[in-house]
Amino acid sequence: MAFIQFPKEMKWGAATASYQIEGAVNEGGRGLSIWDTFSKTPGKVYNGDNGDVACDSYHRYEEDVEIMQDLGINMYRFSVAWPRIFPNGIGEVNQEGLDYYHRLVDRLLEAGIEPLCTLYHWDLPQVLQEQGGWDNRETIEAFVHYAKTMFKEFDGKITKWITFNEPWCVSYLSNFLGAHAPGYTDLQLATNVAHHLHVAHGKTVIAFRELGTQGEIGYAPNVEWNEPYSDKQEDKDACARANAFFIEWFFDPVFKGSYPTFLVDWFKEKGVTVPIQEGDMDIIHQPIDFVGINYYTGSVGRYKKDEGLFDHERVDTGYQKTDIGWNVYPEGFYNVLRYLTKRYGAFPIYITENGSCYNDDVENGKVNDQGRIDYLKQHLTSLHRAMQSGVNIKGYLTWSLLDNFEWAEGYKMRFGIVHVNYRTLERTKKESYYWYQHMLENNFFEV
Ligand SMILES: CCOCCOc1ccc(-c2cn(C[C@@H]3NC[C@@H](O)[C@H]3O)nn2)cc1
Question: Which residue segments constitute the domains of the chain, with CATH numbers given?
Answer without folding.
Answer: 3-446 (3.20.20.80)
